[in-house]
Specification:
The complex is a heterodimer of chains A (194) and B (508). Helices cover 44% and strands 22% of the residues of chain A. Chain A contains five helices and seven strands. Chain A has a four-stranded antiparallel beta sheet. In chain A, strands 5-6-7 form a three-stranded antiparallel beta sheet. In chain A, helix 1 packs antiparallel against helix 5 and helix 2 runs antiparallel to helix 3. The longest helix of chain A has 31 residues. In chain B, helix 13 packs antiparallel against helix 14. Chain B is built from 16 helices and 21 strands. In chain B, 31% of the residues are buried. Chain B has a seven-stranded antiparallel beta sheet with strand order 14-13-12-18-17-16-15. The chains are: A alpha+beta (194), B alpha+beta (508).
Chain lengths: 194, 508
């Protein structure tokens, strides 16, 4: 049992990873505040890091295409020279997007917790507010990929019996916060008789 | 801290066995292919399956579970770690499967299911038999500890031994079944198949030849007619007559077949109530008897097609989700009443939804500015529809456009006018459609999640739509999804619905 690194309770997690937002109520099952909570700021860095990797691979693919066209197609030299500015533009464009978008996304995601359940806001263009009552939560996952672990982040997945929203995901939470949220949202008392 | 359990040490045998079984098919293909042409790229493709199997194996090796006070905790993964908490009260089924090999090795393949999601919440491949016993005990004990309060009896507790009487709510006579078949027109599929067959065999061509007395293929007839229209020439009267007649005969045949099918399928239809269950019974050759517990009904939809209105009838469907036996919360859409007279509608609905008083609801319209937005979106559709005709600009292109624009305006106006919603004491109701009208009732305690969404167009007009998610809805189901609400109204409705949902308890 000791060799299993995942088996941390909420308290353990809180002790291991210092929460960046001290105002956030971490004590499980007693979220009094109705304040709007944000994701962990590290999520922006994580998404940017993922973005760099994507930019690099897109750029490499574009460069390979340019190379193949340069070597195999019989086009005028002026056309060939124009290929490289095109490649630079694509790389810069994708790079700028993967730098700027995570911050925009971060500004538009938030959640509110109260005794009745959780409310999640998402979407930059198509915005959505979703309310999931605690009495409808069937079970909950908290998961962590390798990149998320290096940033101390985790993702919370709520499962309901619904059709369109049978799986409600909230990524980019501080791992300890995700554990706290889970403890708060898990059904308790007599309201969950099946 | 409660101790952790692992899978049976021999689990890897079953995991790899499962992988191999999946590979047998492709492997045979490869071997047969290789027999003739030597080992090819297909053989190399098999190599890519190995990492997949390795991942499955790692997942099995990392699998741990433990029994906490109120929930079962399952952790998986070395690299992508996942921790799942399943409350005992939510567990509906613990299924155990034992094949021959399982029995030889004294292990079981266990699946733990709750109502959420499509797959089992936990699959333990494989556990020692003692562990299964322990799990059943733990889950039962955990549930008992929760449902301890007196008065909060477990749902589905045996009713007092007076056998509840069976009360018929709706009995359909053959005449009504014929009408139901005429309105619903299910024969379309049969006729479509028959039509395709005739077409393929060429019978259709010879039929046309008989009627027209000339030797043309029917594809030619239709092509000629379309070509004549596009070319501005008037097709011959005989051609038009044949086409109209054929179409009429086609529609008539569909209806007749549908009526026959409806009588056979729904013969002796009865909707009845026994205690807290609804039951339906019907069928001439295949006698179907279905039971729907009232508490399993997630939403109720009343549908009125134009023909329904002509005959002053409607049909009722329900979305139900059950947890009976192995079905584990499987969604079902059931026709509760294929046809019901308008005079009986409220009585039947009153039995299906005892605590929702539909006639006394006060309906609210959507925002009147919705008309402008609906009009704009139908004009976009018109533009797309007329685009191909721009190329062959003729006098009638403009007439065509004018007709479509007029239709778009009328459609938008009627559509928005017939949208309506109402909130009662126990449920939210939404209706839409002007030719094909549908009305859906979702009770608060069946609401799983409430969403308020704003598209960029919504934001420009300061509007929003409110949607209610329920269990067991099909893809084509009519849902409570109210568009074109003024933002403050939408906010209030969203708050009210999510509040009501949170205050009620959900039961399967």
């Amino acid at each position: 049992m000791d060799e299993d690194p995942v088996a941390v309770t909420a308290e353990d997690g809180a002790a291991e990873i210092p929460a960046p937002q001290p105002a956030l109520p971490l004590a499980p099952r007693s979220f009094e505040s109705k304040d709007v909570q944000r994701l962990a700021p590290e999520y922006v860095s994580l998404q940017r890091a993922v973005g760099w990797i994507q930019t690099a691979s897109v750029s490499a693919c574009a460069l390979a295409t340019v190379g193949i066209v340069w070597l195999t197609r019989d086009i005028p030299w002026i056309g060939k020279l124009l290929l490289f500015p095109g490649w630079v533009l694509v790389t810069l464009g994708v790079g700028w997007l993967s730098y700027a978008w995570p911050a925009v996304h971060y500004r538009h995601v938030s959640y509110t917790l109260d005794d009745e359940g959780i409310e999640i806001r998402t979407g930059v263009w198509w915005r959505q507010v979703m309310s999931v009552p605690r009495s409808r939560v069937q079970h909950i996952d908290v998961s962590q990929g390798p990149m998320e672990r290096s940033y101390g982040l985790g993702r919370l997945v709520l499962y309901t019996a619904g059709t369109n929203h049978s799986r409600v995901e909230l990524a980019g939470l501080n791992h300890a916060v995700a554990l706290g949220l889970r403890n708060h949202l898990l059904p308790r008392g007599s309201d969950d008789a099946v | 801290m409660p101790s952790e359990r692992r899978l049976h040490p021999l689990s890897f045998v079953f995991v790899i066995g499962g992988q191999i079984r999946q590979l047998v098919g492709p492997a045979l293909v490869v071997l047969i292919g290789a027999g003739s042409a030597g080992l090819d790229w297909q053989a190399w493709a098999m190599v890519f399956v190995i990492p997949y199997a390795l991942v499955a194996l790692l997942k099995t090796l990392s699998f741990r579970y433990r029994f906490d006070a109120g929930e079962m905790v399952i952790t998986t993964g070395f690299v992508f770690r996942n921790q799942r908490h399943v409350p005992y009260g939510r567990i509906q089924n613990i299924d155990a499967v034992q094949h021959v090999l399982h029995r030889l090795l004294r292990v079981v393949d266990v699946r733990v299911e709750t109502g959420g999601g499509d797959e089992p919440e936990a699959r333990m491949r494989v556990l020692p038999i003692a562990a299964l016993e322990e799990m059943r005990e733990q889950v039962l004990a955990g549930r008992a500890a929760k449902a301890g309060q007196p008065g909060e009896a477990v749902a589905g507790a045996p009713v007092v031994d007076v056998a509840p009487e069976r009360r018929a709510l709706l009995t359909l006579r053959p005449g009504e079944l014929l009408l139901a078949g005429f309105i619903e027109s299910r024969g379309l599929i049969i006729v479509g198949a028959a039509f395709g067959l005739l077409w393929e065999v060429g019978l259709f061509d010879s039929m046309v030849n008989v009627f027209l007395g000339e030797n043309v293929s029917s594809r030619g007839v239709i092509r000629q007619a379309v070509g004549a229209l596009a070319g501005g020439r008037v097709p011959s009267i005989a051609r038009i007559a044949v086409m109209v007649l054929a179409f009429g005969a086609f529609v008539f045949a569909i209806r007749v077949l549908s009526m026959g099918w409806s009588v056979i399928r729904l013969w002796g239809f009865q909707l009845y109530r026994v205690g807290d269950d609804l039951g339906t019974e019907f069928g001439l050759f295949t006698r179907v008897m279905a039971t729907i517990p009232l508490r399993r009904i997630q939403t109720v939809t009343v549908r009125e097609t134009p023909l329904h209105r002509v005959f002053k009838t409607a049909s009722i469907r329900v979305d139900s989700a059950g947890s009976d036996g192995a079905e584990g919360g499987a969604a079902k859409r059931e026709s509760l009443a294929p046809i019901v007279k308008r005079a009986d509608l409220q009585r039947v609905l009153g039995e299906v939804l005892p605590d929702v008083d539909l006639p006394s609801l006060t309906w609210s319209p959507v925002d009147p500015r919705g008309f402008g937005r609906a009009l704009r979106s139908s004009l976009v559709l018109v533009a797309l529809l007329t685009l191909p005709f721009i190329a062959m600009l003729r006098w009638w292109t403009f007439a065509w456009m004018a007709v479509l624009v007029a239709w778009a305006s009328v459609h938008a106006w009627l559509y928005v006018k017939h949208l309506g919603w109402a909130v009662g004491d126990q449920a939210v109701v939404f209706r839409s459609g002007y030719l094909w009208r549908e009305l859906t009732v979702a009770r608060f305690n069946k609401i799983q999640a409430v969403t308020l969404s704003e598209s960029p167009f919504d934001r420009r007009a300061r509007m929003a739509s409110v949607r209610v998610d329920t269990a067991g809805a099909g893809d084509a189901s009519h849902r409570v999804d109210i568009p074109y609400l003024a933002r403050p109204t939408a906010d209030d409705l969203y708050r009210q619905l999510s509040g009501e949902a949170a205050r009620t308890a959900f039961r399967w």
